């Protein structure tokens, strides 16, 4: 994962990818599940404006004219709010629940009577493969890329269950998919949480500056590294780079909670990748 810059983050304008002309619109309506509606739902989560959401909740209904001022002020204000990370996660859960209600009402899936179609969909290796025989599937390649792998597996299972008429299981899986997307499928949300965690860490570090010497700082950083490697060894990842991408937000939070002075937004990925790569080499010996 490339390091993010909150000041220059831009929402992905993928809405144009999820569109239908007179021909494809008819085809989408005839296909089951309805890929057009599903794509729009995914894009709406990926593009949800968390800067505006949090600015309105904690500062003002009127955003600053400059995006730089807008984001800097937001992070500065939020980092001074007690238990802010927990509050934002609760807000995330609430909004995800509202989106789930919308997903439940949308006519995305209908009961499928062709068992071969259900079998093809549920046995496909990936979500994209499940939709591989759909018309204009190439228009949705970028949409599929917005969905984290674990969330895509949940969605594929949910749609398969609903096509087969297993509505209770489908509902549970769709709810989990929606919440997983809101936590992992919106880059701006992840960026804000990482920036905020780092800001809180800096403030905590200033408060404890009189107590902590260099030895203490090194000890904390070694502990951060140790816990990061433990998370890596306990999980299942394609390689150290994949693990670093997945674990970076969690390791950033660990560092903040421990009062680490390490900087994570610009250099965090490469540092974590180096730790995990070295650990992987050691394990292989």
Describe this entry's structure for a reader.
The chain has 285 residues and is an all-alpha fold. Helix content is 68%, strand content 0%. It is built from 14 helices and no strands. It has helices spanning 22-30, 35-46, 50-58, 67-78, 84-105, 115-123, 127-130, 141-145, 149-163, 167-184, 187-207, 214-234, 240-258, 268-284. Helix 5 (84-105) packs across helix 10 (167-184). It is globular and about 70 Å long. The model is unreliable at 1-9 and 14-29 (pLDDT under 50).
Brief summary:
The chain has 285 residues and is mainly α.
Structural class: mainly alpha
Taken in chain order, the helices and strands follow as HHHHHHHHHHHHHH
**Quaternary structure type:** single chain
Helix content range of the residues, please? 55-70%
The count of DSSP E runs of length 2 or more, i.e. the number of strands, is: 0
Question: Secondary-structure blueprint of this entry?
Answer:
Layout: H1 22-30, H2 35-46, H3 50-58, H4 67-78, H5 84-105, H6 115-123, H7 127-130, H8 141-145, H9 149-163, H10 167-184, H11 187-207, H12 214-234, H13 240-258, H14 268-284
Helix pairs in contact: 3-4, 5-10, 6-9, 9-10, 11-13, 12-13, 12-14, 13-14
């Amino acid at each position: 994962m490339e390091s993010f810059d909150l000041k220059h983050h831009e929402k992905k304008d993928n809405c144009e990818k999820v569109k239908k002309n007179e021909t494809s619109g008819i085809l989408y309506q005839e296909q089951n599940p309805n890929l057009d509606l599903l794509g729009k739902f995914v894009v709406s989560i990926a593009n949800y404006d968390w800067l505006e959401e949090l600015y309105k909740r904690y500062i003002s209904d009127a955003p600053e004219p400059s995006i730089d001022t807008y984001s800097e002020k937001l992070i500065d204000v939020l980092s001074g709010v007690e238990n802010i990370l927990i509050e934002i996660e609760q807000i995330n859960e609430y909004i995800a629940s509202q989106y789930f209600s919308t997903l439940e009402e949308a006519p995305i899936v209908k009961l499928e009577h062709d068992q071969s179609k259900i079998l093809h969909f549920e046995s496909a290796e990936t979500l994209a493969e499940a939709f591989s025989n759909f018309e204009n599937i190439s228009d949705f390649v970028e949409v599929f890329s917005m969905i984290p792998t674990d969330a895509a597996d949940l969605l594929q299972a949910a749609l398969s269950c609903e096509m087969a008429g297993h509505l209770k299981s489908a509902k549970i899986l769709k709810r989990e998919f929606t919440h997983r997307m809101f936590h992992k499928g919106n880059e701006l949300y992840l960026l804000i949480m990482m920036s905020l965690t780092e800001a809180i860490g800096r403030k905590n570090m200033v408060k404890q500056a009189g107590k902590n010497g260099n030895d203490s700082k090194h000890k904390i950083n070694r502990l951060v590294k140790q816990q990061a490697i433990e998370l890596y060894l306990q999980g299942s990842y394609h390689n150290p780079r994949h693990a670093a991408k997945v674990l970076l937000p969690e390791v950033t939070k660990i560092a903040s909670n421990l009062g680490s002075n390490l900087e994570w937004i610009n250099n965090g990925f490469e540092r974590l990748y180096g730790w995990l790569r070295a650990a992987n080499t050691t394990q292989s010996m």
